[in-house]
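## retry 2 of 3
previous attempt timed out at serialization; input unchanged, resubmitting
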Amino acid sequence: MTCLPQSTGKKLGLVIDLDICVGCQACATSCKEWNTGGYSAPLSDHDPYGADPSGVWLNRVHSYEYERDGAAGTLHFPRSCLHCEEPDCVTVCPTGASYKRAEDGIVLVNPDTCIGCKLCSWACPYGAREYDHDHGVMKKCTLCVDRIYNETLEEEDRVPACVRACPTGARAFGDLGDPESDVSRSVEERNGFSLLEEFGMKPVNRYLPPRQRPAPPPEPAEPVTVADGSALETLFAWVDRTLSSRR
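## retry succeeded, writing output
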């Protein structure tokens, strides 16, 4: 079984704002594009425009309809590996292919030593592991480890592809182990939460909850016409009575 580092120098992860995610899938498609040629490459993709597409996606977006306090809406919920501090997906790996890096806390899979036993996928309660049937190995979000440390890229591009592509700024990347980082401050200010804390795996990624929406205003009442006794009002009343009597 694979051992975890006693501590990590950083806790790199994502913060996702559910209040402004519009479910556009830009994060998922940019992730697919980058990682098809990156650390986990290649990512299988079969019949993508057909009736039964299949393949490996390291980032997925789920959408849910909800109603709360009389207001209805749609919640878009992105899902990928949470890079847990104590991930069972790592400790069950019999070959050491699944591991957590001590220097930054990123959880990775070494495809050269993975035997595709799927124990890690069964151990992960978040469904973050993807089995690539073409290559017989497990694949997962890498936080674009081959991108965030790439000094040939502009500094603004040294973030995961999903973060760079998000058109609404709903995704942020940083060190959640540093209480003074921008991502940690946003979590503190917005009461950010992690998923399924009761499992004890201590997910690093955080979600910011939707803000409370104001209640919709009441429907305006139908205007009431009050007779003012004018000659025009008297004429309209006579026309209405006359036409009504001839029906």
